[in-house]
Amino acid sequence: MCVVLNSPVGRIEISGCSTGVHRIQLHGSALPPSSTMEALVSCEVCEAPEEMTEPLKQCAAWLQAYFCEPWMTEKLPMPPFHHPLLEQASFTREVLWILLRDVKFGEAVSYKQLADLAGNSKAARAVGGAMRSNPIPIIIPCHRVICSSGQAGNYTGGSHLKEWLLSHEKLQKEKLAY
Hints:
Elements: E1 2-7, E2 10-16, E3 21-27, H1 33-36, E4 44-47, H2 54-68, H3 84-87, H4 91-102, E5 109-110, H5 111-117, H6 124-133, E6 145-146, H7 159-177
Parallel strand pairs: 5-6
Antiparallel strand pairs: 1-2, 1-4, 2-3
């Protein structure tokens, strides 16, 4: 089963079943931050089955809140995940769960810092591999993992998309501070 959202970063395809979300795929590219950050941001379902499963409803609602009302994401239920990578014990699963639990909206962490949090300070490259394997981008926020130098680094959807997501979070966090 699949749901498609039109978002500021292009089409987002969510696949899953009644047990949980299998994968989020990002199709399309973000607009340059300067042209979309101050504009009204929208994220709407454009394709969905008539009977949407609860995990897909939760995921779509969470992503809509992320783009339009990010402060609401903490109040919404996290959709359950149903992907083998997230169910089998592994370094990748451990790193993705640590990232989800510990790196909050508007924050960033380096590959090395995340390796340290996972208990292996020499595993920065393996952390990069874990980020590439992430089946649930945005919700499991691999875009928040950056190079020690402060550079954004690589991202499955392209570095411009990673930079847009980081800018979106920074701007929204600043708005909430006022």
